[in-house]
Write a structure and sequence with these properties.
The complex is a heterodimer. Chain A is mainly α. Chain A contains four helices and no strands. In chain A, α1 runs antiparallel to α3 and α1 crosses α4. The longest helix of chain A has 15 residues. Chain B has 22 helices and 18 strands.
Chain lengths: 76, 579
């Protein structure tokens, strides 16, 4: 789980380089101003590649925070 | 490269005082990850540049190209896909695949290809333009089974092939090789249909990275290497000529030595494109010379200069060849089948690219030949490329006959029957001049290199000029050897760039260039933008001699002072001037 979190943080860092680790762990599309549709698509692509998973299109709208991504990955 | 790595590279701050590269990435789809990968590969290859990448409007590739402004972009990268020729060839637009509709698609694609050709030709006149032809599969639109080519499908491929052939003839366009792309991005794993539907980005990440890598490589367009030094026994041919005899060496199928012939073919092709080929072999020179008389050899002895065939260490041969060519080791490849020889040479010349000739492994030889083509490949072969080896032979003959590399006597210079042809104008289309400016180190005013866009922009200034000098004498032609770039205003010439090939030293060509500026271009004073570099000592010495003083970074020479200090010149001068 810890390894998964670290890898997920690295994914978020690559898309939101200005955020600290603490900010990433509480990040959501509401709290991060630069989290727009483009960064959502980029973040999903980075995570799919990093974790070798395919995120279903229907799940994407709900993946709007660090926690949501963590839960999604844990459930797979 | 993974997307996470690309993002990190792109986010790193550019170096201070970096040069700017403004790139337009044009595609009919959203540029998304292709833009990220292209930026990352460019940053990796060209770290001295601060990148600005602009993308065009979604779904309007041709319009994006037509709207390009050369004043706002330094280079253009175009990723063409089938849906840009007709949207019905993609899946985001539904329009039917019935036979009549397919015929209509072919007509529409042909029309789009013509419009595209005109737009790209126009863009490439002012801007370096990289073009990738369709990389994604055609849809299952045709009546035949996918394993059988359909007529309409072939029509579409024919339209793209004709477009490619037309574009390949434009000097400013570099087409991405489909074969090279297929080596690093398998066609079957390029299309991400889910991403295409969701976001309008049709490439898998692997394909986007491959496209970014190759496009960046074409934009960088690194200078080709200049010379190749090859061993003979078990390299240029199979066998030991001193033991097996001239008729015992081979390069054919029957003797299982065909790859040596293929290697000869490649060297011959490189020589024809201007690469210098030298031989370094531990052998009996007389026997090796006899081998070069064999009519079935695919590499002519005329393409090789010099031959270093003796029993001294290979590193000594390499040193002599580099001296004869007067080029640095880092512009040269050495190939030999003996690991100990390769190691000895590599230790003596760490900058030299040394490769073992894998004589027993055809696949490894094949890979080596591809690597050599990559190292020596060039977009355009100029007239000077064809002259190069003869020019070096002539320079060597000059040195032998004058008895010096420094200052031949007036008597010798008078007897050389030298002729200098000046060409003065304001055209940026002289590829040899561009090449010479960007590769000459020793007789170089300041070491300044030009990107293509910067080069073109310089000549947009109406007071600018480009003066080139071609030289020949009784020993033969050296071709275009000197380039001067500057501006002239009311008798004042400001010389921004001045280079001269080292092969042209000791002929007083540089003095004749200055005389041309004063007597023909009407200069009263010439200001030199001189700047010392690690290697431009010959320029420093020359300027010191004509300026009659030690140098700082700005040197000015008056016509009268030059006349008083210039030595006697014996060239016959011809000049042509263009607007």
């Amino acid at each position: 789980m810890r390894d998964q979190d670290e890898r997920l943080i690295r994914c978020f860092e690559s898309v939101f380089p200005a955020l600290t680790q603490e900010e990433i762990e509480s990040a959501s599309s509401d709290s991060v101003g630069v989290w727009d549709s483009l960064s959502s698509v980029t973040l999903a692509a980075v995570i799919q590649e990093e974790f070798n998973v395919e995120i279903e299109p229907d799940a994407l709208p709900d993946l709007d925070s660090f926690r949501a991504f963590r839960d999604y990955l844990s459930a797979r | 490269m993974k997307l996470i790595e690309a993002l990190k590279i792109v986010q790193a701050p550019p170096p201070a005082a970096s040069r700017r590269l403004r790139l337009s990435l044009l595609c009919g789809f959203t540029s998304l990850h292709l833009q990220t990968f292209l930026a990352a590969h460019l940053r990796s290859r060209m770290p001295e540049y601060a990148l600005e990448i602009k993308a065009g409007l979604f779904g309007d590739l041709i319009g994006n190209i037509e709207r390009l402004s050369s004043s706002e972009t330094d280079a253009v990268a175009v990723a063409l896909e089938w849906s840009d020729l007709d949207p019905r060839l993609g899946i985001r637009r539904l329009g039917g695949w019935r036979p009549q509709q397919l015929s209509d698609i072919a007509v529409s694609a042909e029309s789009a290809a013509k419009r595209l050709q005109h737009a790209l030709e126009a863009a490439s006149r002012d801007t370096t333009t990289i073009v990738s032809l369709p990389t994604l599969p055609l849809p299952p639109a045709f009546a035949s089974r996918p394993l059988q080519s359909a007529t309409q499908e072939l029509q579409l491929h024919c339209i793209v092939a004709q477009l490619a052939e037309s574009l390949a003839g434009c000097p400013g366009i570099r087409l991405l090789s489909p074969q090279k792309l297929a080596e690093i991005s398998a066609p079957s794993v390029r299309y991400d249909i889910k991403s295409d539907l969701q976001t309008g980005f049709p490439y898998t990440l692997g394909h986007a990275s491959a496209m970014g890598e190759l496009m960046a490589s074409l934009i960088e367009d690194r200078s080709p290497l200049k010379g190749l030094i090859t061993d003979l026994d078990d390299t240029l041919w199979s066998g030991i000529v001193g033991e097996d005899g001239v008729d015992g060496i081979s390069w054919n199928l029957d003797d299982h030595s065909q790859m040596h012939g293929v290697y000869q073919q490649l060297l011959s092709s490189l020589a024809a494109a201007g690469a210098l080929i030298g031989v370094a072999s531990k052998n009996d020179a007389r026997i090796a010379a006899q081998a070069f008389e064999r009519p079935d050899l695919l590499l002519s002895k005329e393409d090789i200069f010099p031959f270093e065939v003796h029993w001294e260490p290979k590193s000594e041969s390499i040193r002599r060849i580099l001296n004869t060519w007067n080029i640095a080791a880092d512009a040269v490849v050495f190939i030999d089948d003996t690991p100990a020889e390769v190691a000895e040479v590599q230790a003596a010349f760490p900058g030299l690219t040394c490769r073992l000739f894998p004589k027993s492994d055809p696949a490894a030889i094949w890979t080596l030949l591809h690597e050599l083509r990559d190292l020596f490949g060039k977009s355009v072969v100029t007239k000077e490329d064809l002259l190069r080896v003869r020019s070096i032979r002539n320079a060597a003959a000059w040195r032998d006959e004058s008895g010096t590399v420094q200052t031949p006597s007036d008597e010798f210079l008078r007897s050389a029957e030298a002729r200098i042809s000046f060409d003065c104008g304001r055209s940026s289309a002289d590829l040899r001049a561009f090449e010479l400016v960007n590769k000459t180190n020793q007789f170089n005013l300041n070491g300044k290199r030009y990107a293509e866009q910067e080069w073109r922009q310089f000549f947009a200034n109406p007071s600018s000029f480009l003066l080139t000098a071609a030289y020949d004498d009784k020993f033969g032609a050296l071709g275009k050897v000197a380039v001067l770039m500057g501006t002239i205003d009311a008798g004042n010439v400001e010389l921004r760039t001045w280079v001269m090939s080292c092969r042209a030293f000791s002929r007083r060509i540089e003095h004749q260039c200055l005389r041309y500026l004063f007597d023909e271009l009407g200069a009263e004073r010439v200001s030199f933008e001189y700047s010392p570099t690690d290697r431009n000592g010959p320029m420093r010495d020359f300027l010191t001699s004509v300026a009659g003083t030690s140098l700082d970074t700005s040197v000015t020479l008056a016509k009268e002072d030059f006349s008083n200090r210039a030595p006697q010149l014996f060239h016959r001068v011809e000049a042509s001037v263009h607007a």
